[in-house]
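**Folding the chain**
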Amino acid sequence: MSKLIPQLLIAGVLSFSAAAFAGPHGSGGAAGHFLLKERVIEKLSLSEEQVSQIRVLAENYEAVYPRDSRAREEHRASMQALMNAETFDNAAAAELVDAGDERRIATMKLRFDINQVLSDAQQEQLHAFQRKMQKRGKGGSGKR
């Protein structure tokens, strides 16, 4: 029993890191891509320059963190191998967690950079839109 609790704890942490590794859901890839949809561009009254800047930020993010189902499967397989091993490998677990943390930090930076492109009014409109989508259950981080 005393070995089971730490293993369950690590398994829980790893499953959360896997979710983070998978990236934002429902946004079509990088966190800023939904801003490049025509409807959102119109609602936020984004200028061509803003759209161009957001596109560059999103493309740079995707160059480092591509939407690659093979990479997600490899990550998942690594986690499963760790859980099925005879002994628990702390270094391997830390590496898997670090990979998820790195991506989460990059996603936060992307969102910050996109906010810098938007005016205060556009940021408020975007936040209102995100809150509305979370209430509907379509936001990646909202409660469903």
